[in-house]
Every structure is written in C-alpha cells, then in structure tokens.
C-alpha cells in the first residue's frame, strides 16, 4: 500500500523531498504537486509522473492525495496546514510550522479540536543516528540527570540575505527543537550575547552569536551560532550529566595522512551532514501514514514551542542581551502535557 | 515503475533482503518467493503479499518476476543463476556466486554468451560509504601509487559449525573482493600463516589467521582474520601509498565519558556495521534493473575471481603456509579485460 | 652553576616541588626549607640534605639561597614575596600571588620600584605542551582573529571543605590566567550562572557553575566549572577564530578495545594531567634564575589580574548572576602596558 | 650526589645526549668528553665545562668519570663497552651494542664474568609513555594472551646513504627490542617481503619492506618499514590479544579545523616523537647509577638478541624472502634466563 503524497511548494527543498519520496523512501509516491510558480510545479511533477494542481486547497482536497507535504514559502505554511487538518489528512510541514507563534497556536488548537495528531514538523535532527544514540545513553541513566549542554552550529557561509534574527529563527531553531526532545525538558528562558563580529562577512550581520537557554529542570545550554565560520558545516553537541557526558559524533570520515597532517574532511553543508536523517524522517513519516498511526516526529506543539523560544531569543538579541522569559501556554494533554 | 523481484531462499538472509526490498528500497517489490522449506516460503511471502512458487525454475520463469534474488543454500546458487541467465533476467546472487571456481566459470561463460551482464554478486562493501570515500581519495592521486594494505576482519564470535577454511571462504572473501575493487588491481598470490590460537573458543578452529596477498602491481596486503575476538565486529583497512595513507573510518559513535573512561561502542555484528551498505547495494541494483542498464556492482567475473583466490588461501592454510599462486583465466573484454 | 632554592612551605605542594627541583629539574637544588610546622620542615629538608630555617625571613636572607619558592598557606604569600623583592631575590610564588587584589597590587608596586621583574606566579598551564601548540596555531594567523572560547574544567571530586567561591578562586583561576596569555587579551567582565546542582555531592556547594567572560577585544568565553563530575579530571579548551578553530588535545592515551567498547583512560587528577607542565614550568624558572634574566612565566601583574577577575566572578555568583565589570588598574609599562 | 658522566663520541647524537645530561636530567653532569675528531670534542666539552680526554680508554679510566656513555661510530662500540666493563664502570651504549652478534656475545660474556649488570643499551622506546601504558594494559590481563602485533615504522625520508639492509639494522631494530620487552617473549624467526617500491626515492633502495616475526609463544608480528613515506615520522603498534586489543597512542596534538578539514600535525622526526622517551631513559639510567643498582633498561643480552634477529631479517631480505630462524644462544640466568 503506497502512500500518495501531495507536495505544496516545488522550490529547492520541495524538489529534494520529491526526489526523496520517489527514489529513496519505500512505500511513498508523489501523486500531485502545486506551486505558485506553475511551470516550476509542472516540471517537478513531470519528472515523477505526478499531477499538477492549481492550488494547495485543490491538492489537499484531491482524492489522489493521502497525505500532504508543505514545503512552500514560510508565510503560507499555516494556511496549508490548517486546510489539511480541516480535511483530516496527515500533513508534514517543513519548518517553520508558521511564522508567528499565534499562527502556530491556531494550528495546535485546530489539531486538538480534530481529536488526534495529524501534523509532523520538519525538524529532522530527531532522526539523526548520532542524536538518537545520545538519547539512548541519557535514557540508560548512566550519566545521571543532565545539568549542562554545550552546542555549536556552524555554517561555512550564508548569503547576504541572511539577517541577524535568522540566527535564532532559521539556525538555532534546530538545536531548540532537538534539545527539548533530547532532554525531555522545556526551555524557560533565552539570552543572546554577541562576541566580536567576524570580519570575513557582512557588515549588517551579528555573527557569531552565543545563545544561552535555561530549562524547567535547571539545565543550562550554551549554543554557539556561527554561520560564516568558513571551514565547513559543523554541528557539535555535548550533554553533561551528574556522572558523565555524551557527545554527538562527527560523521564517519576516512582518515588521511599526507604532507605532515593527519586529517578528515568536514562536511560542507547540511544536506551532506543530515542526508540520512532526512531519509529516516520521511521513512518514519511514511510508515506512520501508511499504518494510520499518529506521527512519531515533532508535533504542532513542538512547532509552537520552537516559535515562542526563537521569539524570545530574537527579543534578547534586539534588547542587547536581556534574559527573556519564554511564555508558553500550558501544554495540552494530547501533546503529553497536563492541560486539558 | 516498480521492479518486481522474485526471491529464492527465505532463510535469515533471504528474509532480511525481503524486508529491505519491501520497506527500505524505493521502487522494488517482492512478488514471488520460493524455498525448499515450503512453510518458510509461505510465511515470508505472506508478510509482503508475494506469491509462493514451488521452485526456483518456476520463479525465474514467472511473468510476475522482473529480476531474481538468490539467497538460498550456497551449493544451489550456480543452478539458479544459470537459469536466470538462460531466461535473460537480471539476477542478484548472494555470495558465493558458486561453491567452486569451475561453476563460477560456467556462469561467466553463460553470461558472455548471453552478450550482456545480468549478474550482480552480493559483496556489499563496495557500497559502504567509508570504502567509497577511500576509493575517492586513492583516485584523487594525492597518495601516489598504493604500495601496501593493512586489514583486519574481526567477529565477536562464530558458532561451532565454523571451520578453519571458512576464514577464507566466508570471512576474508569480503576483503578479497573489496580490495580488488579499491585498488583496481588483481591478486596473484595468497599465503596464510597461523598465530597462536585463541583459547577462548573451539579446539578445532585455527583462529586467528593472517593472510598475505600480493597483487599484479606488487601491492602487499596483510589481513588479520580473527572470528572470535570477543569484543565486537571490527573492520579495519588502511591503504599506504607513496605519499600518504588513507584509513577506513570506524562508524560514527557517540563519545561517552564516565567512570574514568572516554569511549565509544564497537558494533556487535555485520548487520549493524554494514546495514547502510546493504541498503545502498540493493538501491543501486534496483535502479540498474529499473533502467535496463547493466548492474554496477560486483560481476560474475568478480565472483569467479573471489572463488579462485579463496581456493588459493585455503590451499595455503592446508599446506602449512605455502605461498600459493592464483591461477585466474584471462579476463574477458566484457568484464574490462583484454581477453576476447 | 646550580640554582640554590629555598622553599617556604613544606605541605603537599611544597614537598612535590622539592622533589621536582631535586630529582627532575637539572641545575636546581633545594638548600633550605622552612615551615610553620617545624618537624614537617625538618623531614622534608632531611630528604634532600637542605638546611631547616626558622622563618621565611631567615630563609630569604640566607646566603645559601639564590631564589625563593613560596608554597605556604595562601594568606602568607604576600609577605614572603614582598620580603623576597626587598632582598632582591627571584621568587616563585604558588598561586594565588596574594589573597586580595590589594595585596597583589602592593607586590606589583614593590616590584616596579625594584626596577625589574623578580616574581613568577605558579600558573603552570602556560607551560603545557597542548596550550603552547594552541598559541602557535593562533600566532600563525591561520584562524584569523579569535572570537570565542569554549572551556571546561572538571574534577572528579572535591573535598567537603571546598566552597562555592572556590570555583572561581581555585579552579577557574587557571583558565583565567591561561586565556589571558593564549589570547594576549584582557578580561573586562565576568558573569557566573548556575545550572541545576549535581546531587552527587554536597548540599552547600553550587556545582557546576558556568562562567562567562568578555575580553577587551570582544572575545566571549564560556567556561564550565564542574568539580564533582565523577568521571575524572578533564580540561577542555577550544578557541574559535574567524577562519577556523583549534582545540586543546586530550592527553595521549593507549586505545583499548574490549568488551564491546573502544576507549581510553581519562586522567584522574591534575598531577597526572599537568605533571609535564609543572616540570617545564620549573625548568624555565630555574633557567631564568641561572641566567640572571627576568622570568618568562606569569608575572606579578598576571597574579594581580587573576585576583581582580576572580573577585568579579565571586561577586557575580554572590549577586545571583549579574555581569560584573573587571576594574583593573592601567597596566604598567614594565608589564607590557601603556601606564608609566 | 651528582653522577659524573664521560661521553665517548661528540657527533650529533653525542651532543644531544650531552645537552640532555646537562640541561634536562637532574643529578647528572658531563665531566669528560672524547672524540676521534679532537676539535669537535673540545667544542662540545667547552660548552659544559668538561675535560677533553685523548681516548676512550683514558676517559673510562678517569677518576672524574663515574659512568660512561658510548655514542661513537658503531664499529667502535664493542671495544669501549668491554673497556668499561673491565673498569667496572656503568656504561650506556647507544644502539647498536656492537655491529656483529659475535661482538655482542663477547660483551655478554664479559659482563657475566664481571658478575653484575653494568651495560644499558640505548633502545629508548621502553621509556616511552605510550608503550609503557600498553605494557600495563597487557600486564593487567584484560586482553588475555597476546596473539598478534601489527606495527608500522615510517620516516618522512632518509638520505641517499641509507641502504636496504638498514631497514632491519637501523630502523626495525627499535620494534624488535620494544616488542620483545612488551610481550616478554622471544623472537624465533624473521621474514622480509618486499612490496612494490616507492618511486619517490632512490633506485637502490628496497622501500618499503614488510617484516614478519614469530615469537616463542606463537605471536605473529607484521611490521611495515617505510622510510620514505613522505608525510612524517609515524610509529604505529597494535597488540591483539584473546579478549581485545591495545594501540599505541599517537602523540597528543592540537586539533585544528580550517578550510574544510579537521586535522592534527604528524611529528616530523624521531627527536620530536621520542624526545620525552630519551629524557626518561637517561633519567632512569642516572638514577640507577646514583643508587648503585643494576640498570633497569635494555641489557647487553637485549643488545645481543637484537643483533641476531636483525641478522636474520637481513638474511631473509637477501634470500628473496625466506623464513630465517633466529639462532640465539641459551639466555643466561643473570639476564632472566635458564642457562648457567
Ligand atoms: Mg528540516
Ligand atoms: Mg553480502
Ligand atoms: Mg600551580
Ligand atoms: Mg636510541
């Protein structure tokens, strides 16, 4: 039984996910595509023999579509996700779930009203083998309670269009999600401090930034965001517990000794680094849709929490480094919380 | 267009490949299963909605089968592969291609007569990301010509049924194949020397063994085979060239510091270690079948060469450590050789 | 020409330094020892054939003493160092230089009045091969300007007498000194934030702590202090520059694979971790005394700066985490500064 | 009590040892120097205030010399060592102990006749912290009985005067000694096989070579000797036992990430790699002389065994790769053996 996926948005990410669902993930097929750029939709659809539909609404309503993938422009996410919920269809939404916390909350409310989870948000790190192994180690109890997390998120470079607030919104948001999951804990405050600025990139950009988070359990997180580090795409994460620590592995890389150096290649981008995680993410999503189960990946609530926490980080940056409290609503029971 | 695979042999490996083709590899489906143990075939088939057929011959002839996977008992491989060639159907044969070099050669001859490659042999290491990265480094020329290779192949334990000659036939055969490919060179002699025997396992078994190979280009290979090393499944490979070396990476593993140690887990078996390589192997095979291209993986010739080289290693072991020349036929042009 | 050293303080550290000067460092001999505990002084002296003198003042004045090593109780340091300066004798003072910034400043002023440097303070990390290699890499310019430093200082355990302010005064003080030297920069503010407390140790102790420093050049430092981390003595330091990063190496340790794990031992205490640095520190000091040169190690000014910065960290801790400015006097010219 | 050392031979190695004994090793002083090149002796002596003596015989007989260090031309070693034994003075002899096994045996016999050990041979690796840690691990029993050893000894380059037999005599001899000690076992056969020759160096030289040794306990050793590996000085050693393995650590080196690579520097020569081992070697020797104890380092017997084993390797190389038995005399009781 093949899951028939309709894809909204045929840009770079959308095309990559179409390829993945078609060529990599067993049991999934892309049957419909839509995009505000009609020819782009047509081209992407023709490569996989999918129908081109005029709008997200049409695609969501199509009887040839079992489940929806939203990979369009961020500001359009909320509407498509709400439509999918209204249609009762499973929907995978690339991050962000919505561009405002208020819109995220509308989705949460709609999903609650629907009565069961339909939404998975595209935070792929939860599916990375390294993070999963870290979670296993933490769950084993061998390290005792977690106390601190040290992280770094480095990109070789970003384009000129990248702005200082995107450090939180586009970059740190991955750590925000994966740490909430890894620690099974909630972030309660955020602070952003700004080191000396790199001279190797744009005047307008505060880069690097250091973000500090505190969780409900008192865990302290420091996260370096450095999006023009020049040397590669480098993701570091170390959780320190009462009796030891666990560290995210670097990707396996062939060691080379030549010309006085022993070395390994550093990945150059997130596609290389997290390609397997993307595959696993869609495999898991496809399996949940096929079985009729709720999705096991990040929920609408996780998308909402990420929005509120990144908002706090942005406010801290704009305030010159104040500690900003994270004001999350009570977590509803259907998302594992205590609220009704 | 889904590739419809018929599977001959529903034992442990066959079942694993059925799962892989069904759940992991996009574009493939298992449509028929046969096994000398009828109920076992029925059970495996029912899990994936495949037909149960009475014999390999029936399965190969079925119009519902586009391509054949042979995962049955080794001695039956040659017959099934020859039947598939006779039927003009692509066939993936788990190693060994055949249990004698003579039978391998019959397959090679049949395939040549057919006029194009239909056979892929199940040496999965060529699809492992680490070996592929090594090959890239060698191909870059940064290391100059390869001169030596140091390898180890260690299993935690083997069952009592494992015999001393299996060190070459079942274990070293993986290095024999992957090194021929990695070096793009041919093995011309083999020698087996026997260290002190481990006391942790069976009296009847010569374990460990050290195998020495020489290639046509004069590269010297030493390969430790130690199938009861106790601590895990550990594959090491280092190629030393004129200007440097490259080393197979250990799998990425979370670093843990606790109780006075910094450490990482060692994989416990080959399924864990080479799971991704098996997936990539079948993805590539499926893609070649779907596109109508010749398979890109190990050929019948590679299966034949592996048989002759393992025979030489076995003879060396049985002779008490003589250097045994590898007597390969000239390589036919259709396998990249100079012979007609 | 042997440097004759008089040692003030024959406790654990003093005895270790006596051993080092006698057995390890060429060109040095301990000729006199004093301690408030007379029998302890006598025992330490007798082991190396040194004289026992009744007081620090007598020892400093002895014609058998070329240079003085102060390893007594912290509150007595200032007096001994000032006496040595008054006598015009080189003096090595274990950290702290003095227990108050005011006393440190009195030493700085006395040394300036004397006209040349006589004092070296016992911050041994500047002599550690790993930190020195980091400094070489930074000096090469390959990384561009430093922007951030991530550090951790972990002890397996501390005794019950250890108090929360000692995290700054006794522990972080080593990073404070070595980072000022590594970056060739000055720390201008300090902040201490407190993660969830470990349950594995004392109720009275804030452990771990995270210290944040900013330098004059805008470099941001985060430093984890965790003195009951259980697993070992672990020192981490990573400097991130505009074009790359450099990381302090872990000590070389034999890799062991056994029982499913690949691992290395973590040092258990600072004597094991920094033994070679202590040797190098005293070798350099002895050489400078023998040659009549000013000492190349940490100066009285460095001792003063460390005192002011640790005071700021203590105030931040006690304030609940305020950012506290570091109020250093202008640096005198004789310490490489611009002040008269 | 300072040990007064007389140094025979003031070439490069001799000068380095004079520096070491003077500046690094506590409790030692060089009081006399001789060299066949008089001005060279005078210059070396003058730097440390030592006397220049006309001959080794004069130096050994001098009342100002407590112990002798032989660092002259290899063919002169035996005579000086025999003279020192005749004089009853401790003597440290750089490798080789003598240039023929017969001369080594004369030294062994003379020392036996003297009644106690006076000779230490300059195999410094036994004092390397990494090898010592390996020995500790083996001694702990955690790995069970050793079964195999995999080694590599690589130099960046050698000068044109280096000949093929020096691979055994000058290079492999270090592994031969350290493995005998590490395993507490005796080498009983040697074999040399020759891979494809590197094109990056001299026509006359067989480089690399692979040496295979077998021990009395059946341990099998493979040792890559590659003295023009181009990239650096690289020493690898891995002992595989019944229950696990232990690996010689690479030297601690700062990790650098820049320009797409994570890397560490590889040492460029043996002085850099084993500097600490040389220091420890002379510290131990000086301490043994000072205390009147027999030396703890490699004995005359070890020097003799190394000579016989390297002879066997040379014969194997010259025979085209035959297995050559090592014909050691029975080990005398005073060297831990069973012979009278
Ligand atoms: Mg994503
Ligand atoms: Mg296979
Ligand atoms: Mg100190
Ligand atoms: Mg030596």
Automatic annotation (TrEMBL), chains A, B, C, D:
Transmembrane segments: none annotated. Residues 3-123 form the Gfo/Idh/MocA-like oxidoreductase N-terminal domain. It catalyses: myo-inositol + NAD(+) = scyllo-inosose + NADH + H(+). Its EC number is 1.1.1.18. InterPro entries: Gfo-Idh-MocA_inositol_DH, Gfo/Idh/MocA-like_OxRdtase_C, Gfo/Idh/MocA-like_OxRdtase_N, MI/DCI_dehydrogenase, NAD(P)-bd_dom_sf. Pfam families: GFO_IDH_MocA, GFO_IDH_MocA_C. It is an enzyme of class 1 (oxidoreductase). Homotetramer. Belongs to the Gfo/Idh/MocA family. PANTHER family: INOSITOL 2-DEHYDROGENASE (PTHR43593:SF1), PTHR43593. This is Inositol 2-dehydrogenase. It comes from Marinactinospora rubrisoli.
